[in-house]
C-alpha cells in the first residue's frame, strides 16, 4: 500500500488494475495527483475465508442444539422462548450459507448463479437486522415483565408470535436494498467483489444511510441500554423479597447478555458502515483516512457474523430451563457411554 506523489512536471498514466485493487484518483490541488490504493482482493478474501471457517462449525453445532432445545421448551408455553427460537433460526440460516461464502473466497470464482449469490448476500444482512430486532424484543420483554408482573401473567403467547412475524416482514423488506444496490461486471464475481450502484446524488446516499443507522442501530441501541439500566436499578430496591431479587438477577443476566452481544458484534460495524458509505460516496477524500476505513470495514463485517456464535451463550446462561435440558441430556449421554463400556468389559471377561 503506498501513496505516490508526483511533481507538477510529470503526469504519469493511471493504471486501474493493480493486482486486483481499485485505484482511486484524488486531486488534492490543481498541481498534484495522488494514487490511493484500496485493500487488495487477496487480503479481503483471506480474511473472510478464515473468519467464516472459524464461525461455521461452532455456529452450526450450537445453533442446531439451541434450536432443538428451544423448540422443546416452546411446547411448554414458555413466553420468553419465542423470540429466542426466531433468533436461532436467523443465525442458523446465515450459518448454512457460509460454506458457499468460504468456497468463493478460497477459489475466487462463483459458479452458482446470480440468484444464489444475491440470496446469500441478503441472508447476511437479514440475520444481522433480525438479530438486532429480536435482541431488542428480548430485552424489552424481560424488563417489562420485571417491572409489571401483572402484564406478564396476562401476556399471551400469540402476541410474541405476532411480533415475530412483524419483525421478519419489516427486517426482510428493510434488507432488500443491500442486494439491490449491488451489481456485478462478471458472472463469476460475488459478495465483496460486487460493485455498489451510485445513487443520483449524494443527498440520497446520506439520507439512506441515516435511516439505516437510525432504525437499525441507534434506536435498538437506546432500547437495550435503557432496559439494562432499568433492570439493574431495580436490584437496588432494598425492600425487594429474596425471590424477586433472584428473578431480577436472572432478568439482568439476560438483558446484559443482549447488550454485550449488541456492543461486541453490531456496534463496531454500524459505526464503521457510516464512514464506509461516505468513502463510497466520495464524501471522504483524504487518502489515509479512506485507506484506514476500507481496511477496518472487513474486520467489523466479520465481527458482525460472530453473533451466530455468541447468541447461544444468551440461551444457556440466561435461561434456567435451557441449562436444565442441556444438563439432563449431557448426563444421559455420559451414562449411556459408561454403560456401553461396562458391557464391553463384561463381555471380554
Automatic annotation (TrEMBL):
Stated membrane topology is: Multi-pass membrane protein
Which GO molecular function, any one, fits this protein according to its record? Answer: G protein-coupled receptor activity
Q: This protein is called what?
A: G-protein coupled receptors family 1 profile domain-containing protein
Please give the GO cellular component terms listed in this UniProt entry.
Answer: plasma membrane
Q: Does the keyword Lipid biosynthesis apply?
A: no
Q: Where in the cell is it found?
A: Membrane
Q: Any stretches that span the bilayer, and where are they?
A: 47-70, 82-106, 126-147, 159-180, 206-229, 250-275, 295-317
PANTHER family per UniProt: G-PROTEIN COUPLED RECEPTOR (PTHR24232), PURINERGIC RECEPTOR P2Y, G-PROTEIN COUPLED 10B (PTHR24232:SF6)
Q: Which UniProt keywords apply?
A: G-protein coupled receptor, Glycoprotein, Membrane, Receptor, Transducer, Transmembrane, Transmembrane helix
Q: Which residues form the G-protein coupled receptors family 1 profile domain?
A: 62-315
Instruction: Look up keyword Transmembrane and say if it applies.
Output: yes
Q: Identify the main location.
A: membrane
Q: Name one Pfam family in it.
A: 7tm_1
Say which domain of life the source belongs to: Eukaryota
Query: To which species is this protein native?
Result: Salvator merianae
PROSITE patterns linked to this entry: G_PROTEIN_RECEP_F1_2 (PS50262)
Gene Ontology BP, a term: phospholipase C-activating G protein-coupled receptor signaling pathway
Do you know which InterPro entries this protein is assigned to?
GPCR_Rhodpsn (IPR000276), GPCR_Rhodpsn_7TM (IPR017452)
Amino acid at each position: 500500500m503506498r501513496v505516490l506523489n508526483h511533481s507538477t512536471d510529470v503526469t504519469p498514466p493511471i493504471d486501474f488494475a493493480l493486482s486486483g485493487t481499485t485505484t482511486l484518483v484524488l486531486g488534492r490541488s490543481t498541481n498534484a495527483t495522488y494514487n490511493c490504493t484500496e485493500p487488495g482482493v487477496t487480503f479481503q478474501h483471506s480474511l473472510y475465508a478464515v473468519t467464516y471457517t472459524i464461525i461455521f462449525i461452532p455456529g452450526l453445532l450450537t445453533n442446531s442444539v439451541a434450536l432443538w432445545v428451544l423448540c422443546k421448551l416452546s411446547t411448554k408455553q414458555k413466553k420468553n422462548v419465542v423470540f429466542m427460537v426466531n433468533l436461532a433460526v436467523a443465525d442458523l440460516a446465515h450459518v448454512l450459507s457460509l460454506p458457499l461464502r468460504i468456497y468463493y473466497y478460497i477459489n475466487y470464482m462463483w459458479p452458482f448463479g446470480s440468484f444464489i449469490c444475491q440470496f446469500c448476500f441478503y441472508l447476511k444482512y437479514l440475520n444481522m437486522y433480525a438479530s438486532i430486532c429480536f435482541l431488542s424484543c428480548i430485552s424489552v420483554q424481560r424488563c417489562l415483565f420485571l417491572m409489571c408482573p401483572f402484564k406478564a401473567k396476562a401476556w399471551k403467547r400469540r402476541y410474541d408470535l405476532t411480533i415475530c412475524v412483524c419483525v421478519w416482514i419489516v427486517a426482510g423488506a428493510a434488507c432488500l436494498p443491500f442486494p439491490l444496490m449491488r451489481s456485478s461486471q462478471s458472472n463469476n464475481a460475488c459478495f465483496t467483489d460486487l460493485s455498489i450502484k451510485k445513487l443520483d446524488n449524494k443527498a440520497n446516499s446520506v439520507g439512506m444511510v441515516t435511516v439505516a443507522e437510525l432504525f437499525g442501530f441507534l434506536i435498538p441501541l437506546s432500547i437495550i441500554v435503557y432496559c439494562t439500566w432499568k433492570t439493574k436499578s431495580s436490584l437496588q430496591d432494598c425492600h425487594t423479597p429474596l425471590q424477586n431479587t433472584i428473578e431480577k438477577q436472572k432478568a439482568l443476566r439476560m438483558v446484559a447478555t443482549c447488550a454485550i452481544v449488541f456492543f461486541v458484534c453490531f456496534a463496531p460495524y454500524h459505526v464503521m458502515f457510516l464512514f464506509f458509505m461516505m468513502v463510497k460516496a466520495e464524501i471522504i477524500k483524504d487518502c489515509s483516512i479512506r485507506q484506514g476505513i476500507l481496511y477496518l470495514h472487513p474486520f467489523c463485517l466479520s465481527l458482525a457474523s460472530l453473533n451466530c456464535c455468541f447468541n447461544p451463550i444468551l440461551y444457556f446462561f440466561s435461561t434456567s430451563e435451557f441449562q436444565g435440558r442441556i444438563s439432563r441430556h449431557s448426563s444421559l449421554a455420559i451414562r449411556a457411554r459408561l454403560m456401553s463400556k461396562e458391557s464391553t468389559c463384561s463381555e471380554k471377561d
